[in-house]
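Anyone able to model this chain together with fe (ii) ion?
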Amino acid sequence: MTKQATLARLMRAMIKYDCGDVPRIQHFVKVHNFARIIGIAEGLGEEELFVLEAAAILHDIGIHAAEAKYGNCSGKHQEELGPDEAKKILKEVSGFDENQTERICWLIAHHHTYTDVTSADHRILLEADFLVNSFEGNVSKEGIISFCKNVFRSESAIAMLSDMWNI
Ligand SMILES: [Fe+2]
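re: yes, here you go
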């Protein structure tokens, strides 16, 4: 099966996982698309792009488990509980080897971590998530500008955020 077909199956499985939760489904479909656009613009290799796209589809998977265990879905709880949920769905979809699964789970476990961002895939996931959250989360213009300054580094991500918000 091609990587594109595997990602399409993963997308379908994640939509099923979030059954009935329209906002969350719409959220990760958008985050995935932005991550792909930025990843391609930044020149990621085929393998790295595949892992990034899978992580973008699954990044918020810990939300339901966090709500069930802690009664809230704070970023840290999601980071803690996301990887185990992700492993189940990756296994079910199949097409992900051990290294890819490990990296996808690491990214999920760090998608609310904004310090010591040293790898391109981690950075791009944060950028893609914020491109969507800047709209969905009702962030002020000052908040958008400061997040951009502190976290954004990819040229295409900065350009898209600037175009979107006219900043
Ligand atoms: Fe998100």
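Residues 22-41 form the longest helix (20 residues).
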